[in-house]
Design a protein that fits this description.
Order of helices and strands: HHHHEEEEHHHHHHHHHHHHHHH
Distance between the termini: 82 Å
Structural class: mainly alpha
Radius of gyration: 30 Å
Shape: elongated
Strand content: 5-15%
Number of strands: 4
Strand order of the largest sheet: 1-2-3-4
Number of helices: 19
Length: 451
Amino acid sequence: MKKLFGYLLLFLTAFQLNAQTKDEAAAQKALVKAKSVAANPKKARKASTWLRLGEAYVNCYDAPISGVWSGAPKLQVKLFFKDQQILSTSEVEKGGTVFSVDHYSDKDLYYDKSGKLQAWIVTKPVNDEDNLGEAVKAYDKAAELDNHGSSEKDIKAAIKGIQNRYFNIALSYHQLGDDANASDYFVKAYQTSSNPVLNENDTTSMYYAAYTAQMSGNNERALEYFQKCYENGVFQNGDIFSLLANSYMAKGDTTKSKELLSTGVSKYPQNQNILISLINLYIQTKDDPDKILNILHVAEKNEPKNASLYYAEGGVYLKIDRFDDAIATFRKSSQVDKNYFWGPFSVGQAYYNKAVKLQTEAAKEMDDAKFQAMNKQMDSCLRASIEPFERAYSIAPNTQLKAGVAEYLKNIYFRFRSESQENMDNYKKYKEIADSGVQPAQQQSSSEEKK
């Protein structure tokens, strides 16, 4: 009897794991009823009938994950799903992040290392239908029958809700490193926003549909949606010029790529992605890099007080190994605008990076005389970087940049700390600031606005 009871218990447990939850069963039952009502010729003429059908489809989609949200604590989610058994828990790396995954019979829930829910994938939907797609069709039918506009607000809100659901699905896939699926759902989010009833233009979904398409190797879609971004003025602080140019390059259209990047560098001279793409393109096509400089010179002539243009020109000189011209042009940006942080910072960083390169070469040099000469030159570069770094530190617009510059100055003064008490004091000063945990400042971010 005891063995039979144990077998029966196992059988019932297995049956429960494969059965729908109460919410899922209720949602499926409601959908069957809503379909039946919509099939009635008389009731099918009412907008409310199709509103209820759309809602039934949405509830079927929501049922497996109803009540959870991104950032929810794991304990709270477990309590919410207390009637559903976790089949197993695993640790996986997705998109460069390690997640703890709770596997249920119908879904996988992904938690970060702090125990917050970051993504979820429904592995066993309530039914085999495209619930959100069918819901949109139902709401469109409701809008068609809503002659007096009495349900317009409800229909718009319902379609907006579906758009948000598509966007959240896309985010989950993107966070898990599945950019192909992410792009598909960003496209659905964008298309839903363009529904005549909603009549919005979701440029965020538009951009991410293109970005994730490019990340997943779907260049045809990337080109289509980056082009939409360009036409809608979604420039992403200039990044769209390099991203769209890359799509044209993948298609083999170097002429269009050069055209876009040349326009982009004139409009967003601080954007390093554009500059790097343009320089690499000219190198790849074996064209004259002076053409890039000519573009910048024309821009400088039009905006002689725009310090960022000279900063951009200096970056080009560094890329083509014209160090002295780079230093002179970076200094020019400071002359144009004495409070322009990236001018002195770039001078300091150029000398510092040259010193690091010399140190690397010196470590491989077997000839002692040459080794000593390299070390002397390295020290000269480090000393030359102090003044511009000090200047950059004094005008840095925020504490993060100050701490970043301090990291460089800490390293420099450490090397010279035994030469004087002043150097030792400066080493201690900048060490305290740099050791606050902020990473070293980098070349100007492409996400910064054009000044």
